[in-house]
Design brief:
- The chain is an alpha/beta fold.
- Helices cover 39% and strands 17% of the residues.
- α7 (183-192) links the parallel β7 (165-171) and β8 (196-200).
- The protein is globular.
Amino acid sequence: MTFDVESVRRDFPILSREIGGRPLVYLDSAATSQKPQSVIDAELDFYRLHNANAHRGIYTLAEEATELFEGARATIARFLGAPTPSTIVFTRGTTESINLVAHGWGRKFLEPGNEVLLTEMEHHSNIVPWQFAAEATGATLRYIPLTDDGLLDLSDLGSLLTERTKILAVTGMSNALGTLPPLRELIDAAHAVGAIVLVDGAQFVPHHAVDVEALGADFLTFSGHKMLGPTASGGLYGRAELLEAMDPFLGGGEMILEVYKDRSTFKEPPYKFEAGTMNLAQQVGLGAAVRYLEDVGMDEIRRHEEELTAYAIDGLLEAGARIIGPKDVSVRGGEISFWYRDVHPHDIATILSEEGVAVRAGHHCAQLVMRRFEVPATTRASLYLYNTRQDVDALLDGLERAGAIFAL
């Protein structure tokens, strides 16, 4: 379909809301995206018409629930270019997915003398689980630094990525800077020294066409609520041989074959990682979100966001804001962090909220980034397929009001 932002906006009921008598301007999609009516309907219809536990019954509702749940898995596998649905493990999102890998792979295969390579732009969810794994195994964490422009400094990559490196864990797009790391270059370099690669796709997958096999990623995570889906939906892509070699993350019902008093045997992936009753309606809703994104077209979404991001960056710079991160839209996404004159981000966010403009203020779970750029926090405006130039203009008008209030 031809991209038409006004047509897209009509699919999102919440965008018709007013806040304090002003139209809602939602610029916090990096935290969580809004949901089209088709996703809301899919989740609601599961509860209204098909609610039962998947994989556990042979009656009609249970079979329907299983078909919808596994249908969502197949839809997501196709969307990500995964070779089979069995390489998609359902979780509550990227945080749980990275913990799954750090526990199920990291604690099993890392040992003293091994290194885990991260970057200074990682979300805490791609740092803390590796700290746990390193502490448990004796492995060491190392970090790729950042340039002043908010890009990865790869000048010393050869000494950071060595035969001691067992896994590189890197974001596909920084939630704090918007930066798009050169994933293919990093993946090829890691594979050349025998390391595997986990891509944190929480921000990347919602905004870019992804083919995990063409990319060469060994693991890739995704969070449904950032890609138009419900909260507590998402998952992990993993190469089949890696998933087979890993230990389960959680133990309990449905992930087992046989339970004895002293031991248990487990199902094949992905089911050995899906203990207990899963978030069935949420993952069904995520399947609907993926179909919506496919209908709009990921390349169309990327083009729209590039144009809007360039417009926003130009406007912010003209208004006197300092952009934290790259300004070239070809190497970044629509997550724009900035510092406006001498006004603290929390004050900016409060004033903007009074204008009906929703932005994020804080460290964005990226404290290493904040320390690198010597700021306690930033204001972050994050753009998605339903945002318009009018939304950016409302942001700029709100900043002008903030400047007037603080007499700047």
